[in-house]
Amino acid sequence: AAPAAASPPAARVASAAPATMSDAAARPTPASTPAPGGDEIGALIGTGLGASPAKPAAPAQDPMQVASIKAKGPGDLYGLGYNYMLSGDYAQAEQTFRQYTQTYPNSSDAPDAQYWLGESLYAQSKYREAAEVFLNAQKAHPQVPKAPEMMLKLGMSLVHLDNRETACITYAEINRRYPNMSANVKRKVQTEEKTARCG
């Protein structure tokens, strides 16, 4: 799942809000907790990811030593992670975007960083972790431009987890929630619905 060729956004200043650990991707929603806003997909997926409780993966090394390159702020760190995605180094991309989402949870690029974190996990076949990241990112940022793609990748991750039924519900929800999604994403949703043999 190679990312679309697009230039990373210019460096932006992180929000002045304290960088508390509010990143939803770092804390999976327990199955017993109803999702915010009565999110039925979140409730379904909370029970559909498997019997064993999922744990967020810890970075492989000290996150401040990503690739031995010292990023000078959120823009540099985001660009570094994006370049790892483009070059196919998904393990380094995962580590870099994980550091970004933990260090700059309130930045304007945080939703995109969560998306790319999910993509890096998906590309490594870490489908359970990817599903959690995409679910939490979409719930935390339902109106960002990448929100339909977050749900699409969530559905694709669920298919790989042999949870086709919930994946099909997720695809249907994309069409219901985002009727004005781009034609490209709409085509991808239709393709994945056919692949999953959704009703």
Tally the beta strands: 0
Radius of gyration: 16 Å
Q: Average the pLDDT over all residues and give the rounded result.
A: 77
Outline the low-pLDDT stretches.
4-38, 50-68
CATH architecture of the domain at 127-199: Alpha Horseshoe
Helix amount:
40-55%
Order of helices and strands: HHHHHHHH
Description:
- This protein is mainly α and 199 residues long.
- Among the domains are: 63-124, Tetratricopeptide repeat domain (Serine Threonine Protein Phosphatase 5, Tetratricopeptide repeat, Alpha Horseshoe), CATH 1.25.40.10; 127-199, Serine Threonine Protein Phosphatase 5, Tetratricopeptide repeat, CATH 1.25.40.10.
- Helices cover 53% and strands 0% of the residues.
- Helix 2 (74-87) packs antiparallel against helix 3 (90-103) and helix 3 packs antiparallel against helix 4 (110-123).
- The longest helix is centred in the middle third of the chain and has 14 residues, at 74-87.
- It is globular.
- Residues 4-38 and 50-68 have low confidence and may be disordered.
